[in-house]
Design brief:
UDP N-Acetylglucosamine Acyltransferase, domain 1; five-stranded parallel sheet; single chain; 20 strands; 27% strand
């Protein structure tokens, strides 16, 4: 089993594998073009988004600069909005639902590392998918950690560190993110 196949299956893999390095280089070239189009027409940026992402719904906005590992594991629902400076480490699938609004500087991190020091010393890692539902609002500077699911209509407060799943309609804040008092 190749390293990319292991990565996509959520198994331990080596990120400096030549196939993955080539994929990362393609993504870096794509990001350079995309991030250089800050003043381009929306339809031109949309065309480039379709080229670099796994799937892109109608009316999606991703404000540059934007950074990711590969792009092909990112799936954006209709009218999703990512503000300036978002980072998506997409070694596993990332789904962002329709109408979701993501503030500036948000980090969505599927990459994880073994807890055993000997495995980390071998530069092994793995990924856990992230699913963000529809009509979610994630405030600026929030961190979404590997394996998290955020339900439809949820709110994540600015600067929050989301370490656990967030239910539909829930509001979480803080580090680690906890349910906000109503």
């Amino acid at each position: 089993m190749g390293e990319k196949t292991k990565m996509l299956a959520g198994k331990l893999y080596t990120a400096n594998d030549p196939e993955l390095a080539a994929d990362a280089a393609r993504a870096a070239a794509w990001m350079a073009r995309y991030n250089g189009m800050i003043d381009a027409a929306p339809e031109d940026r949309s065309r480039l988004l379709h080229e670099g992402m796994g799937s892109v719904g109608r009316g999606v906005t991703v404000r540059p600069p934007f950074h990711c590992d590969y792009g092909y594991n990112i799936h954006l629902g209709e009218s999703a909005f990512l503000n300036f400076g978002c980072i998506v480490l997409d070694v596993a699938r990332v789904d962002i639902g329709a109408g979701t609004q993501i503030g500036p500087g948000v980090q969505i991190l599927t990459a994880d590392h073994p807890r055993e020091p000997a495995l980390r010393a071998r530069a092994l890692e793995f990924g856990r998918p992230i699913r963000i539902g529809a009509n979610v609002w994630i405030g600026g500077g929030a961190l979404i950690l590997p394996g998290v699911t955020i339900g439809d209509d949820a709110i994540v407060g600015a600067g929050s560190v989301v370490t656990r799943d967030v239910g539909a309609g829930e509001t979480v804040v803080g580090n680690p993110a906890r349910l906000a008092r109503q």
